[in-house]
From TrEMBL:
Low complexity composition bias: residue spans: 23-34
UniProt xrefs under Pfam families: SMC_N
Family: Belongs to the RecN family.
Function, in words: May be involved in recombinational repair of damaged DNA.
Alphabetically ordered keywords of this record: ATP-binding, DNA damage, DNA repair, Nucleotide-binding
Protein species of origin: Deinococcus seoulensis
Region described as Disordered: 1-34
Descriptive protein name: DNA repair protein RecN
RecF/RecN/SMC N-terminal domain: residues covered: 43-523
Length: 566
């Protein structure tokens, strides 16, 4: 395995790495014309490892039109499959080269890189600039940079939504105005329907909320009030024990035969003489007097406590009742008093909202009717703009379609009124088409063949422009030749003036218009089939176009090829 491939297993770095000499490369020639692509970053490089018959591949791309040609069965569409993996297409373990454990595709857009690895166990890993992302994130990222028109992707034109979008993308102002009006109307109607459907439930909810709000409001709890109430209750319930304790303390301090006050007073007197001669003793005597005063003050307060032996029944009942009311609220709306207060605030908010709904229900009918008028007005403006733009746009498309081998083609945008406003207006928009003279117009989905759809898609891409800076066409030329092939080539060349265009083709007329011509070749190496892709030199390109024209490189074929190349 090449050393560069080993390094890539750990993720993609923002800077392009030097190419390994064992990897097939296709550097751009200095003579290649440099076209300016203004739509955004272009695809500058593609690395592929172990995809189908490709072992390793490193391609560098330039602006303008790049074509991929090769013999039937050479694997030209492998390049499209590789880019499709970066766009999030479904991974298939059958794409992994036989005998290998995984495949890896990496695309570089200047300094930005995207990669996808698929293992033989079916696991898929996507990365953007080396960081693992979801497949959806990779898809969103790549779809802003690259569009692939597969051989059968033109069938997307058969969807009514896509046909309507072709016209509406020309009318961004009118479409935005209608979308805003429609959303306002549907939101109001949804709210009115909800109000009508839930009147009984709303009435029950109002009753419940009003009861809960009243119950809490009547108690009127305040944060932190339970703790002091509980302390009061404990005091009132134990007044007798408190009084007895105070009486016992009074006996010890002052009323007993021997008491603390008497001992303190005696101690003060015993220091009278010594305090006259010693400052320290005098200070200690003063502190004893202060202690005596403090004990006497405590005795006075204890007498008040000892005399208050009987609790006030009303006070006790009040405290018990208050604590009971608070406990009931906590049991229903708690568990804490703070939770009760939070619940009360929520109830008040819900009551206010339901009350508004009650009031709004009376006026919302009129609002819905007024908004519907706005919707119809915006829909009329949108349809008028559609009608003004439909004929010129159809004429532009038909002008290109007729050049693409359908000289009798006709195409129109048909507006069909709806009975009620829809998300996209008051009418359906469908493409009516015919490729044959004398035939009536009919829905595109009913009358267009696969080849006709592909050419209509090409006309749309060139007239309306692609939505991404890089566009890939996988055999858009299927089923055409002659003058139509020249016209398709001219249209692709025109699109390549503002976009980076990649085309897998079997037509020499298209290959001759390319700025960069890549050839896909298949060979057998060491008993294994290997596909490689290389950028052709001018002489090689002449021979390849001659082969595409006549299957050989005769003088006549080479001369015809020179004429195509100009």
């Amino acid at each position: 395995m090449p050393g560069g491939a080993d390094a890539r297993l750990a993720g993609v770095t923002r800077k392009a790495r030097p190419r390994d000499e064992t990897t097939q490369t296709a550097p751009l020639p200095t003579a290649a014309p440099a076209l300016t692509v203004d739509a955004g970053p272009s695809l500058t490089r593609l690395e592929v490892r172990n995809l189908a018959t490709i072992r390793t591949l490193d391609l560098h791309f330039g602006a303008g039109l790049s074509v991929f040609t090769g013999e039937t069965g050479a694997g030209k569409s492998i390049i499209v499959d590789a880019l499709g993996l970066l766009l999030g297409s479904r991974s298939n373990t059958d794409l992994i080269r036989t005998g290998e454990d995984d495949l890896l595709v990496t695309g570089f857009w200047n300094d930005d890189a995207a990669s996808r690895r698929v293992t033989s166990q079916g696991r898929s890993t996507a990365r953007l600039d080396g960081e693992v992302v979801t497949l959806r994130e990779l898809q969103d990222w790549a779809q802003r940079r690259l569009t692939i028109h597969w051989q059968h992707s033109a069938v997307s034109l058969l969807g009514p939504a896509n046909q309507r979008a072709l016209l509406d993308r020309q009318l961004p102002g009118e479409l935005a105005a209608y979308t805003a009006a429609y959303r306002a109307w549907t939101d109001a109607r949804t709210r009115l329907d909800a109000l009508r459907a839930s009147e009984r439930e709303r009435a029950r909810q109002l009753d419940l909320l009003q009861f809960q709000a009243t119950e809490i409001t009547e108690v009127n709890p305040t944060p932190g009030e339970e703790e002091p109430l509980q302390a009061d209750l404990n005091r009132l319930a134990n007044l007798e024990s408190i009084a007895q304790g105070a009486a016992g303390a009074i006996t010890l301090l002052s009323d007993g035969e021997e008491n603390a006050l008497g001992f303190l007073a005696e101690a003060v007197r015993s220091l009278n003489v010594s305090a006259r001669y010693d400052d320290t003793t005098a200070q200690l005597q003063r502190e004893l007097r202060e202690a005596l005063d403090s004990v006497q003050a405590v005795v006075g307060e204890l007498r008040a406590v000892a005399e208050d032996q009987a609790p006030d029944p009303e006070e006790l009942a009040r405290v018990e009742a208050r604590l009971g009311a608070l406990g009931k609220l906590r049991a229903k709306y708690g568990p804490t008093l703070d939770d009760v207060l939070t619940f009360h605030a929520q109830v008040e908010q819900e009551l206010a909202a339901l009350t508004r709904d009650e009031q709004d229900a009376g006026t919302l009918d009129a609002d819905v009717a007024a908004l519907l008028t706005d919707v119809r007005r915006a829909a009329a403006d949108l349809d008028a703009a559609r009608t003004r733009r439909a004929a010129p746009l159809a004429a532009e498309l038909v002008g290109v379609i007729r050049q693409l081998g359908m000289p009798h083609a006709r195409l129109e945008f048909q507006l069909t009124p709806l009975t009620e406003p829809g998300a996209h207006g008051l009418s359906d928009v469908t493409l009516q088409f015919t490729a044959n003279p004398g035939e009536d117009l009919a829905p595109l989905a009913d009358v267009a063949s696969g080849g006709e759809l592909s050419r209509v898609m090409l006309a749309i891409s060139t007239v309306l422009g692609a939505d991404t800076p890089a566009v890939v066409f996988d055999e858009v030329d299927a089923g055409i030749g002659g003058g139509a092939a020249l016209a398709v080539a001219a249209q692709l060349r025109h699109l390549a003036q503002t976009r980076q265009v990649f085309v897998v083709t079997h037509l020499a007329q298209i290959a001759a218009q390319a700025d960069h011509h890549f050839k896909v070749e298949k060979s057998v190496q060491d008993g294994r089939t290997v596909s490689r892709v290389r950028l052709l030199t001018q002489d090689e390109r002449l021979e390849e176009i001659a082969r595409m024209l006549s299957g050989n490189t005769s003088d006549a074929a080479l001369q015809h090829a020179r004429e195509l190349l100009g």
